[in-house]
Structure formats: structure tokens, C-alpha cells
Amino acid sequence: MVRDRLDSLLVTLEAEHRKKPFGDAGALRARVVPELRALLADGRRHAQERLFAEGDGLACARRLSRQMDAVVETIYEIVNRILYPVENPSTSEHLSIVATGGYGRGALAPGSDVDLLFLLPYKQTAWGESMVEAMLYILWDLRLKVGHATRSVDECLREGRSDFTIRTALLETRHLAGDAGLYSALKQRFDAELVEGSAAEFVEAKLRERDARVRKAGASRYLVEPNVKDGKGGLRDLNTLFWIGKYVYQVEDVKALVGAGLFTAQELRLFQRCEEFLWRVRCHLHFETGRAEERLSFDLQRIIAERLGFSERGGLSAVERFMKAYFLIAKDVGDLTAIVCAAMEARQAKRIPMLDRFIGSLGGLRGATRRRRAIGPFVVENNRLSVRDEETFRSDPVNLIALFREADRHDLAIHPDASRLATRSLKLITPNLRRDVRANALFLDILTSHNKPESVLRRMNETGVLGRFIPDFGRIVAMMQFNMYHHYTVDEHLIRAIGHLAALEAGRLGDTHPLSDRIIHTISHRRALYIALFLHDIAKGREEDHSIVGARIARKLGPRLGLTRAETDTVAWLVEHHLLMSTIAQSRDLSDPRTIADFAGVVQTMERLKLLLLLTVADISAVGPGVWTGWKGELLRTLYSETELVLGGGDADLARPARIDQARARLRAQLPEWSDAEFAAYAERHYPGYWLKADERFRERHARFMREADAAGQSVATGFETDGFRGVTEITVVSPDHPRLLAIVTGACAAAGGNIVDAQIFTTVDGMALDTIFLSRAFDRDEDELRRAEKVAGSIERALKGEVKIADLVDGRRQPRERTKPFVVIPEIVLDNTASGRFTVIEVTGLDRAGLLYDLTTALGRLNLNIASAHIATFGEKVVDVFYVTDLTGGKIIRPARQNAIRKALQDVIQGASAGERKAEGKAEGKAESKADGKSAAPGGTNAARGARRSA
After folding, report:
1. Which residues contact residue 230 at a Cβ distance below 8 angstroms, ignoring those fewer than 6 apart?
2. What is the DSSP string of 780-796?
3. 462: nearest Cα among 338, 608, 318
4. Which of 186, 320, 527, 944 gives the lowest tally of CB atoms within 10 Å of its CB?
5. Lowest-pLDDT range of 156-160, 637-641, 754-758
């Protein structure tokens, strides 16, 4: 249909030109472009309709490529016949139009560039220049993105010899229009002068280029917002594999790689399935966004899942099922990459690999001598562990586990031939093998290895052996969690967590985790710790609480792996409570004796406390880049030390007078220049709670700060310091106390771009407030961070002095929640009178947005509540804000009517987003309101555990 319309257009134009010449290129473009534009729009519309109808992404890309071929050919004919006809062309008046790059492969995404080579015989002429210019102007007027080059055959070869990107573009070319003989000459000389004898050089360059590309796009193929084109496991990886195969084996089609021996027929089908799926996703992305969008971002994942026909099933949402399918394809692409790398190594085109080296990472060619030695039922070839023969696994299925144990023990990479055989032998992993004592002992050795358990487990996972041997693990392979907090799929997160724990134990992370580094070699249940970490998220994606289900799985798996009853109990306890320590540390007042007592009541022993700390550190660190912060480490260390005191027989309440006296004495020693009378007067300004709650590092700073403010006659003053290790900046504020003080401070921080992670609030006996606000750092360099802190502190001072209107400043900072729009977080308001001896604890969960903390503290101020401390935890798009409050008389909030009024006010704040956002969230929020109003308070430890599971 497209070809017929274009042929008809060409005939019509020639007739019109004979009747009345167009005169110049501009007049011709004005006549041609509208029709070509309409034709392209119709073609795109038809391609999208066929994509929905057929569900074939590669067919869609080829259809679009054919349409573009016809358009380019027609433009050439129009320009050549009408504008610049040549009756008897000289040897220099020849031109060949060649498709290159992705377009040269005959597949074109809806928003991709049209890559063209204007091929000249040996030099540019006025005719050739005019032809190229006229064609490009028409293509540009069609609003096409055209990547183009104008070169002679000699120039192409010269450029391709020195630049592998150009050489690769020349590898995949198609003749579209013009002089076919000129194109044939290029192909023949390219093969003879560039390809011949340079396979090893090309392979090394392409694999090195791939390494750089995936590092830039994200080194893991399990990133939750993957790049479909350039990410690891994406289309470009498949392109690279075919480029290598085509260059090395001199084939024109991927199917010929079977005959060449690179792929089996089954692997060819896998290549084709991966290619079609990735093209389908890519075409839908381009059609949906109207541009060359390659990143599968959160806001697009739901849409693409719907376009591809995924639906909710088995505890997974439609988008989670779609992304699981995507990551399984990415895994398959990784398997194909390993196959090609092994084939190239066999041709001595890669350096000798080690176990944990990134496949495809090259440091120069090395013609290694192929040496062979035996290790039990396996052999080592070229420093890779392989099988003796095809019967290795069938003769003894335990060898499927032993293969990986030997790889870990001898620090060997596994030969892709062995990996391929393992994948083909997965049916041998039966219930009998899962019960086999030898197999389970080998797996336990792998999991708890002192060598490189992360690398081995990842390889086991990629072959499918891990998920088959531990079926519950198989359920979470390639499973993503649709939120902004987790950066990796669940299986990748668990494997990375094991790697982080192994690095801790090896002493490589002592600077970042000093407490963990000190205690990790004092634990008694090392095996239990590794297994608990491996299992802590294994029940994700089920309708029941994953911590509870995970504990049940642990109780079944522990005896199978050979754990003692005590070890199994420890593993189950750790899995069930794996979120508790993180939640308590980030969302509770760690100076409140009830917080520590409740947590200690759950932990009960020092061994559990140590294990839980180590598991928590490894878990948070494996969530993704930037998730672990020094501030979180500080909170965990504080919770650990306070709980250690209680578990060691101390009683926080009984020790209060002595601790207050000690705190005063230490501060007195730090202020030798103060007179006794001056210090006594200062000390009496503080209530007893200050001496128990304020960190010793701050007390001296507070004293000097308040003294300077008094001396300067300042009723409002601010000070600031930054702490690189903890990753926070502290802003201290002194001001006359009033109920809306914290709201003003948080509003000023929000207006100045400060992200609050914690707040300590003290009131003096003479009616002043001494607040310390902790902001997450925005800059690595202290001088930059201090300049920002000065700006935030200045904003706070102006607000407290009434020089600016906070509400207006905060409203000016509010922006549409573009990043969080795809997510729905069910709002929840919990009032708890048991989590603290003196305060009512209010926990607010909801979708994060700019100015939310200011809105919440403003609402609490209007409710005449005194805020004693605020603790802010953010998990991606979800925020959990916790406030310790009293009424104006200093008592807890007891009356049900008053509690309901607080819930209603805070619910209104959470739902107080823009009308568009509220509409998107309305259904979930409506359900949550009744749930929140009917929620009863729970004991601090239990309630925190529930909150921890919500934060998963």
C-alpha cells in the first residue's frame, strides 16, 4: 500500500513538473512534504495497530523499516528525476544511498534515527552535493531524526580502519537507492581490507565497548528501571552478539550462526525470542511516549504492562509480572553473551577469566595455552571449570551442586559449556536431590563460603540451578518490587546482601561499618546468619506477610540444610524480625527508655542483637546505591549500644539520676572557663530529660551556642555543622517556645531545599526551645554543604522573626510529583500510647511529596499538640513520619474523640495533594481511612514490627 501510494506520487509529480516546472527545491518540498508526512503518519498508525493485533515487536520494527525504505527511495527518485537529472553522468556523478546502523539491519523503532550513508565514488561534486542537500532538507522537513555521513568508498574504509564504531556501522548496511555497483564495491573492499584477519581485534573492541556501555547504563541487568536498548541484557547486547558472529563467521543472518557452530538450534530460538520481546517493549515505549524513549521508568511500566496484556495473578500485580518477564529475558540475553564469550575464548580472543570477573571485561588479547587438569568429576580448561563429558550430571546429579562448590573452592570461572549443560540438566534436580545430604552440605558450603559466595550464587541463579534446588528462591527469581526504594530484583538483592556480608566478614568495610566490623567475629551462629540473610525476602510477592511466611520456609529448610534445632530457630527468628531493627532505629525515639525496653524484650539475647545488626546492615546496603547512609549507621549503633546496656542487666529508669549527674559532670569538665555559678545557672535551665536525651557531642555545642546568643541579646539564633561520616548536617535553633515552632522550622527547611531526617526538640525551664534538625547532606564537599546549611539556617531565622511567610515559601517549592505519580501508598495514621512512657506516638505513613513534613507539623500545631521529637524515614516514594507528642498539659492523648480528631486532621493532610493526584489515589485512600480510624494501639515492639513489614 505504501509503495503504491509513493509510486503514484512520483508519477503525479513528474507529470506536474512537465506541465509546469517546480523551479527550485523549496517549491518541490512544499509540494512533497505534506503528502509524505501524511503517508508516514498513516504507516505509523498501521504499524501500531498491527503491533497490538499480532504482538510481534520485531515485525513492527521491520514494517516501519520497509516503510522508511520506500520513502527514502522515493525521495531519491524525486530529487534525481525532477531537480537534478543527469542524462550522461560522468564517473564522479554517481551516488548510492545506504542504510546503516540499526536501520541497516532492517529494523526501525518508531522514534529512532534514520541512519544514512551517502556513498560517493571518489570525490564530492556539485551534483552530488546538491543531491544530498535536497534529500536531507526533505527528510528534515518531515521531522525525521537523520544520522548521516557523506563519504567516498576510500573514506569509508579509512575511517572504519581506525574507528570501530564506524566499522560496525559499515558491517550492517543495506543498499536503498542509487548506484548499486558503488555499494557492491564498498562491501567487497570492506570484507577484503577490514574484516579479513581482524576478528580478534574486533571482538575485543566490541566487548570492551559493551562493558563501558553497561557501566554507564547500570552494571546490573536487574535494575528496576532498565534501559531497554543500552542496559545490560538489552537489545544492544543482542546486537553486539550478532556483530561478533557476523564478523567472525562471515554470515549475513543470525540463523547462519547455527551452521557456523556458535549457537544450537535451541539457542537460536532463545535469541529470536529475546529479540522479539525486547523489540516489542521498545516499540510500545516509543509509540506511547512519542519519542525515542529507551528507559523503562516506573511511570511507563504500568502503561507498557497494560499494552502488552499483562494482568494481576498469583499475588503479583500486572506490572510486577511484566517486569519479571522482562528480567527473565535479560537473564537469557546474559546466557547468550556467555556462550559467545566462550566461543571467542576458544578462538583465543579473550584473556583468561577468573570467577568474579565481569564477563566480557577485557584487558588485551592473550593467546593462552589451553591446559587441561582434573578436579574430581570436572576438568579445568583454560582456567575455566568444565565437565568431563555430557554424562557428568546424569551419572550423579549431586555434581550439579558440586560444580559450583569446586568453582568457589578453586576460584575458577565456570565454562559456559558446563553452564549450558547444567541448564539443560535442570530436570535432574528432583525432590530426591533436594533431600540428598551431600547436595545440601555442598550448598551450605557455597552459601557460607569465606571466598566469593556472591559470585557463585549469582552463577547458580543464572543457570537456573539455584531456583530449582531451592524452589522458594525460584519463585522470586527476576521478581521486581514496584517501588522507588528497591533498586534490584528480589533475587539479585538477596545475592548482593550475601556479598556485602562476606565483605564485612573479610574486613573490607570496617571504615563504613565500624561496629559491625568489631562484632562479626564474635558471633556464635555464623551459618544461621548467612542462611537468614539468604532467606529474609524469599517470601516476597505473596499475599501473606513475607516475614511470617519466610520464617516458616526457614523452619522447613534449616533441617534440610543440616542446621541444628537451635540454628533453625535462630534463622526463623531473624527472618521474621529482619525489618525490626531498621524500623525502630529510623522511626522511634532512641532516648526513650520504653523504646529500648520494648526492643530488648523482643531481642532477648546479645547474640540475637549482634546477628540482627549484621543482617540489617547487609540488607540495607544491598538495597541499592545511596540507600545506606552514615546517619542510618549512627542510628543503628545507638540502638545497639542502648539495647546492649539493658540486655547486660542495666535499667534505664533506675539509672536516670546517676546518668543525669554524669552528663552534667562531663559537660562541666568541657567548660573549664565557665564559673561555677554560670554553669549552675545554665544547667538549671534544662529539664532532666535533656541530660538523658541530648547526645554528649551536642551538649558542649549547645552550651556555648546558647551562651553566645544570650550575650548578643538574640532571642532567635541558629548554628550549623556538617558531619561527613554520618552523612548529615545539623542545624541548631534557639527560639521562644510555641506550638507551631517545629512547623515553622520544617517549613523553612522545605522552602530552602533541606531534607529533614530527624529532629530533637528540647524546652528550657525559662520558656525557650532548643531544637536540633538533622538534614541529609546534598554535597560531598564540606564547603559546599556548609554554604547550603547557611542558606537553610538563614531561612529559618527569617521565618522565626516573622520576616517571611512560611506558607507562601513552601507553596513556591511544591512541584508535581512526577516521580511518585505511578505509585499508590495507602495512607495510615496510628496513635500508640504504649510505645512511650511519657508521650503519645503518632505514626503517619503515606506517599511522599514536597512540603509534607511542614503540612503535618502545621496540623499538629493547630491541634495544640506539643511535639517532643520527630523521626522521618523515607523508603523511596513512601514516607513514615513519627511524632512523639503530648497535649498542652504535658499528658498523653487518651480520649477516643480527641484521637479521632487527630487522625482525621492528619488524614486530610495526607490526602491534601493536588486534585489530579487525589483522583489517582482516591480508591486506595478511601479504603485506608476506615482502616486507620479503626486501628488500635499495639505494644511498641509489635507495632514497630508491623510497621517494619509495611516498609518492606
Report:
1. 213, 214, 216, 217, 236, 294
2. SSHHHHHHHHHHHHHHH
3. 338
4. 527
5. 754-758
Return the biggest CA–CA distance within the chain.
Answer: 110
CA distances to 663, 740, 748, 895 from 812, rounded to whole Å, are 43, 20, 12, 38
Number of residues that this document lists for the chain: 952
Contacts of 54 (CB under 8 A, 6+ apart): 60
Backbone angles phi, psi at 122, to 5 degrees: -155, -20
pLDDT of residue 934: 35
The cell numbers describing 743, all together, are: 512547623
Distances in Å between the Cα of 808 and the Cα atoms of 8, 748, 792, 861 are: 63, 10, 16, 18
Residue spans in the chain of domains classed CATH 3.30.460.10:
2-196
Q: How distant, in Å, are the alpha carbons of 27, 515, 607, 623 from that of 614?
A: 74, 9, 11, 15
**Three-state SS for 885?**
strand
Residue whose C-alpha is closest to residue 651's, from 701, 603, 596: 596
701's grid cell? 555545642
Is residue 773 helix, strand or coil? strand
What is the C-alpha separation between 765 and 74, in angstroms, rounded?
87
Q: What CATH topology corresponds to 814-952?
A: Alpha-Beta Plaits (3.30.70)
Answer whether residue 409 shows pLDDT above 70. yes
How many Å apart are CA 123 and CA 268, to the nearest integer? 43
Contact between 652 and 593 under an 8 Å Cβ cutoff? The reply is yes
Lowest mean pLDDT among 25-29, 293-297, 742-746: 742-746
Mean pLDDT of 894-903: 94
- Give which of 61, 366, 402, 381 is closest to 239, Cα–Cα: 61
Q: Pull the grid cell for residue 130.
A: 546538491
Centre a 10 Å sphere on the Cβ of residue 197 and count the other Cβ atoms it contains.
8
Name residue 157's beta-bridge partners: none
CATH 3.30.70.260 domain extents, the chain: 814-952
For residues 535 and 513, what is the distance between their CA atoms, to the nearest angstrom? 23
Please state, in angstroms and as integers, the Cα–Cα distance from residue 201 to each residue in 206, 211, 350, 364, 385, following that order: 9, 16, 10, 9, 26
Supply the pLDDT for residue 919: 40
pTM as predicted: 0.76
Q: Is the CATH number of domain 2-196 3.30.460.10?
A: yes
Over the stretch 557-611, which tens digit does the pLDDT of each residue have?
999 999 999 999 999 999 999 999 999 998 898 888 899 999 999 999 999 999 9
In single-letter form, the type of residue at position 643 comes to T
A 10 A CB-CB count for 537 gives 26
Q: Find out whether 720 and 732 touch, Cβ atoms under 8 Å.
A: yes
Q: How far apart are CA 117 and CA 131, in angstroms?
A: 13
Tell how strand 146-152 and strand 114-120 pair up. parallel
Residue 828's φ and ψ, nearest 5 degrees, are -150, 130
Q: What is the mean pLDDT of the chain?
A: 86
* pLDDT tens sequence across 354-374: 444 333 333 333 334 446 788
Beta carbons of 167 and 160 less than 8 angstroms apart = yes
- Give first-to-last CA distance, the chain, whole Å: 54
pLDDT digits (tens, 9 = 90+) for 640-678: 998 998 888 765 555 678 888 888 999 999 999 999 999
pLDDT tens, position by position, 758-797: 778 888 988 898 988 888 888 888 888 888 889 888 888 8
SS3 644: helix
Q: What's the grid cell of residue 494?
A: 538477596
**CATH 1.20.120.330, the chain: domain bounds:** 201-346
Distance in angstroms (rounded) separating the CA atoms of residues 257 and 350: 20
CATH code: domain 201-346 is 1.20.120.330
Answer yes or no: is pLDDT of 352 > 70. Answer: no
Number of helices and strands (H, E) in the chain? Answer: 42, 16
Rounded-to-integer distance, Cα 507 and Cα 514, Å? 10
- The DSSP code for 818 is T
